[in-house]
TrEMBL record, chains A, B, C, D:
<feature type="binding site">
    <location>
        <position position="54"/>
    </location>
    <ligand>
        <name>NADP(+)</name>
    </ligand>
</feature>
<feature type="binding site">
    <location>
        <position position="277"/>
    </location>
    <ligand>
        <name>FMN</name>
    </ligand>
</feature>
<feature type="binding site">
    <location>
        <position position="48"/>
    </location>
    <ligand>
        <name>NADP(+)</name>
    </ligand>
</feature>
<comment type="function">
    <text>This reaction introduces a second double bond into the aromatic ring system.</text>
</comment>
<dbReference type="GO" id="GO:0004107">
    <property type="term" value="F:chorismate synthase activity"/>
</dbReference>
<dbReference type="InterPro" id="IPR020541">
    <property type="entry name" value="Chorismate_synthase_CS"/>
</dbReference>
<comment type="pathway">
    <text>Metabolic intermediate biosynthesis; chorismate biosynthesis; chorismate from D-erythrose 4-phosphate and phosphoenolpyruvate: step 7/7.</text>
</comment>
<dbReference type="GO" id="GO:0005829">
    <property type="term" value="C:cytosol"/>
</dbReference>
<keyword id="KW-0285">Flavoprotein</keyword>
<dbReference type="GO" id="GO:0008652">
    <property type="term" value="P:amino acid biosynthetic process"/>
</dbReference>
<feature type="binding site">
    <location>
        <begin position="125"/>
        <end position="127"/>
    </location>
    <ligand>
        <name>FMN</name>
    </ligand>
</feature>
<feature type="binding site">
    <location>
        <begin position="237"/>
        <end position="238"/>
    </location>
    <ligand>
        <name>FMN</name>
    </ligand>
</feature>
<keyword id="KW-0521">NADP</keyword>
<dbReference type="GO" id="GO:0009423">
    <property type="term" value="P:chorismate biosynthetic process"/>
</dbReference>
<dbReference type="GO" id="GO:0009073">
    <property type="term" value="P:aromatic amino acid family biosynthetic process"/>
</dbReference>
<comment type="subunit">
    <text>Homotetramer.</text>
</comment>
<keyword id="KW-0057">Aromatic amino acid biosynthesis</keyword>
Amino acid sequence: MSGNTFGKLFTVTTAGESHGPALVAIVDGCPPGLELSVADLQRDLDRRKPGTSRHTTQRQEPDEVEILSGVFEGRTTGCPIGLLIRNTDQKSKDYSAIKDLFRPAHADYTYHHKYGVRDYRGGGRSSARETAMRVAAGAIAKKYLATLGVRVRGYMSQLGPIEIGFQSWDGVEQNAFFCPDPAKVPELEAYMDQLRRDQDSVGAKITVIAEGVPPGLGEPIFDRLDADLAHALMSINAVKGVEIGAGFASVAQRGTEHRDELTSEGFLSNNAGGVLGGISSGQPIVAHLALKPTSSITTPGRSIDVEGREVEVVTKGRHDPCVGIRATPIAEAMMAIVLLDHLLRHRGQNADVLVGTPVLGQL
Amino acid sequence: MSGNTFGKLFTVTTAGESHGPALVAIVDGCPPGLELSVADLQRDLDRRKPGTSRHTTQRQEPDEVEILSGVFEGRTTGCPIGLLIRNTDQKSKDYSAIKDLFRPAHADYTYHHKYGVRDYRGGGRSSARETAMRVAAGAIAKKYLATLGVRVRGYMSQLGPIEIGFQSWDGVEQNAFFCPDPAKVPELEAYMDQLRRDQDSVGAKITVIAEGVPPGLGEPIFDRLDADLAHALMSINAVKGVEIGAGFASVAQRGTEHRDELTSEGFLSNNAGGVLGGISSGQPIVAHLALKPTSSITTPGRSIDVEGREVEVVTKGRHDPCVGIRATPIAEAMMAIVLLDHLLRHRGQNADVLVGTPVLGQL
Amino acid sequence: MSGNTFGKLFTVTTAGESHGPALVAIVDGCPPGLELSVADLQRDLDRRKPGTSRHTTQRQEPDEVEILSGVFEGRTTGCPIGLLIRNTDQKSKDYSAIKDLFRPAHADYTYHHKYGVRDYRGGGRSSARETAMRVAAGAIAKKYLATLGVRVRGYMSQLGPIEIGFQSWDGVEQNAFFCPDPAKVPELEAYMDQLRRDQDSVGAKITVIAEGVPPGLGEPIFDRLDADLAHALMSINAVKGVEIGAGFASVAQRGTEHRDELTSEGFLSNNAGGVLGGISSGQPIVAHLALKPTSSITTPGRSIDVEGREVEVVTKGRHDPCVGIRATPIAEAMMAIVLLDHLLRHRGQNADVLVGTPVLGQL
Amino acid sequence: MSGNTFGKLFTVTTAGESHGPALVAIVDGCPPGLELSVADLQRDLDRRKPGTSRHTTQRQEPDEVEILSGVFEGRTTGCPIGLLIRNTDQKSKDYSAIKDLFRPAHADYTYHHKYGVRDYRGGGRSSARETAMRVAAGAIAKKYLATLGVRVRGYMSQLGPIEIGFQSWDGVEQNAFFCPDPAKVPELEAYMDQLRRDQDSVGAKITVIAEGVPPGLGEPIFDRLDADLAHALMSINAVKGVEIGAGFASVAQRGTEHRDELTSEGFLSNNAGGVLGGISSGQPIVAHLALKPTSSITTPGRSIDVEGREVEVVTKGRHDPCVGIRATPIAEAMMAIVLLDHLLRHRGQNADVLVGTPVLGQL
């Protein structure tokens, strides 16, 4: 299949550009009988929505989603779920100036060379605008996973140079950064305010965790759970790195240190991040994402135009000085989509093993 | 499809366990007319082969591959290429002791819970033994890519705590570590010798680079080139992290620092690692992998058996104290497979754009 | 992937029920640079549209399609094309009566057993209503194929007991049946009028032909061109049989009779229907479809309800007495989708062979 | 994926040419814990094997299969099953004469144009020789389906002009034709003997039936069970038509005649062939295949060579005068593969519905 469908049994297909009439998605393979309403999707859409604090783009998008199919009398029918979000606050004229330029670190250059034409309005398809549909689809996956006791949550673990230690989930939703340490919030606020004065942007690190995942999810050797998670998370705009569990820290670890020993009470540590041999172990699934700084900044930069002439580029328009700030719900969504897809695949092949086990028993 | 096939147009399907009779692969979608012989595959197989230095497992496997189909009169026919490697040096009795145990940090636990049964001999399917077929398939991709001027190479950039700066490609093949700094080799040797005395293992970091990649490869939004690379590289045994370009360093970077500016001579830097918006930019594709320390060590560890009883586990058998040492050819193979798959996909959809361009012109 | 996506490189994903708010489709992999407007899609949608003659359902649906993405300044961008058609003339109350019944020969019974729940309004997802989106997607494929000189057309070759010999393409669009023999139309009209009086329905046979298809399309051994055509055509509601070329007549043929001999002027016959060994030969691709009689008829029939109680069913609502009458544009669409998907796949793998050939030269 | 893999969850990938060293297959997604031995595969391989009567090719191939992986201690492990069959009786020199010719009705012409090169020995990949691996893979699917009470069987329903009425399954395996009417066998023998004297070939019709299939298999709207069956069966060499249930007879049927009415005892007829709306109904799945006459005959025919020069072709070598005679086990295999793939997909998405039902209860 082409590049805009993700998943094997639970599949998400999306379309839509930043400044086109609408975003659309088709979510296929959702099990039937799940209670589902617009409200279930809207909650996460609102968490990702722009313009909710002074630290994100001021573009105003209500991101109201319409369910077009697949739900009847309040429950999923097993048929594909069509989703629609109209774009309402496009200001395409902001972009006519960069029509023939390649903004540094943007996809302008590669889209131009790949397709020969490009929708330059707000980055077109390459804009993070499309992630709204990932969040809507992910909310469906989260809702189903919740019926099995699986919970997917994320937080910001680093903003630029500021590392953020995890204190508790309580505060995460109470600030604009999904910061798990309330005491750090003022420092983050101050950093962002200075960043805007500097007309610059910065990167961030996000951590996503799934709890209650049953053992057995993952299809070695290529469709390992961690490999599909890496695929899903790296497919998010601006992501440049993905770690599972100890990640790059594993490089300097010794085997005696890294291996998670087992007792009758369970594992004594989780360097594996909940995945062994590409299959979930029953421990929490832990992933970290590195997001690069926003490419759209008003500080002039060197580039060329479509004719190869050197130009100085200043990116106007309304942009997030740190795309990482709104990335947490997107990362949660992609992890949830991968987990549900693998749950369905696992049930299909291994129902014989699963019958009578808690995993299927819970269903 | 199930989990043992990778790719869309250039697909690699493999089967085979560590101590079964043989490894087998079917490589489908290779363009016709490519000169191909066993020697083309054997070179990389020998680079990955065990027992070539005292720093890797002493299992002796010639890893001689047989081409069963898809090649006629020395050239590929466009039909699927069947590959066979017989296992010759299994010592399965080494493993009967751990038949009912879950070795810490191994896939024993997850395979047992997923499938209900497991081939415990040498880890069965979860053993890195299967990577021999990735290397064989990757060699075919490399050969074809070479006809387009694309070259995929890798090296070790860190061994445990020892960081290795890149000096030159010259020395990489002259040492057991794929170390790009000859001066560092003695230090690596000494470290590994001590590690064995400590009956411990350690992690490593590998860097893979593809040069000569034309712009345009990658299928947003989900099948981005970097996302498929992350999938491919994370699917390699023991890999816990993947970075593209600046990777996790992007987190602390500012936009003015990260963005790769353009002049009429080309890009001034490569923080992007050759991928913008999920599509190749024409710059070198740069990826880094984190490999965890080998799980099989002779230092006793705590675990449980299939009945949940606590046991002390000592992993005998012949193992690599650092799986990263033989990982470079595997990482190269997976990157080559991804690049060829995306080249074919790109040509299919965008032939209109490509006609008359160097990319297709070279063909 | 799940069951609502068709194709590998040119993919069509659809959603939407007969009486839901809308039908939606995402067409992915369309080459960039193709001139495309709503008018290109509307023409075929109007050919399939209900209520255009007294011989089809009287449901009034304008079937006006909206392009939501993938087209910029009148040309495709290579990004996914989102399509939306609002349902306007649902009369769901017609269906409350059959809420708990299984209408004979309908999908009620199987949807109930598969999903546990079902949208009973007008057959929900199982209604031929969804074929509107196949036609819209097919129109895009047709438009691109036309730029290569490929033309896909169909006609009715049999209505119930009345066989229709092909006279010419001229009259096909001038009657409600897509009948290629104007002299036969009055007989068809009379037959249909009597059928309505009998409160019965009847089957039909449709023939679809693609001319100008270059040799080389098809991916043996499983994704043969004829196998994918069979898949695509059999996936159309009510289709019970598919033939390529001589089809079932081949059974009684001798090899000396069936084989299409070749001269320097080309093939002397086309029993193969344009496909040899699963690959297009350059001759016209010829396929025949058998459509069963409409299941929804007002003559009472025996059935059971969800509790297993025996009931007599009379299907009210507005239905086509012969679903085959509107099937020609649907069959054309599915053939066009398969041909474009295979063209892209073929170009991807075999660009080396194609460079400098008319096939790619035309692009 | 490319064209040599079939299925989504239960996938079969094959490689190998008629006169290459071997045939190979990788069967992925087979549920774990299934008792499986070479004997289970050999039985069906022997039913398809050439040279067992004077009515098939005299090529002698023992078709002995080796299981390379995926089975441990007599049971499947859930890991991919590698299969190998060595070719032993190639007589490639028979073919050098047709090296530069296109045999009428053969794939020579299309392979030449698609790939630019071709393995002309015995048709290379386009030979029905590859179907041996379909039969081996199908035997695995049959074995698993049998544990659920599903049985897949086939027979010859027509040989050339001779229609064969079904009498009983008893005699089917007792004759060389899989003829279900013992009284007809002498007539078939006489017809085939005359056919050889005429140096000609003939077509055949095969019927395949699956009994005990639970309701619910099939993934509308594109991956309907009947659509995937059509794909699978049309992908068999020489097949030109596929019917489900009443098939082309539906065209002349009235709705009152075609619809299968239901009582509390079940369906009163099976015009649907066990599939309603693309989903199995619990009735027997019935499919019919039309196979064209063998293209390889010794009666001279007109053709051209690779230079376009007209030539007269006489096809030597050893061939089946009716490929349909050995097609029954192949058709059974493909139907079994489709059914198992859909069973796994159905279980994956609909486990909630299935828990506690006979379908999953039996597992």
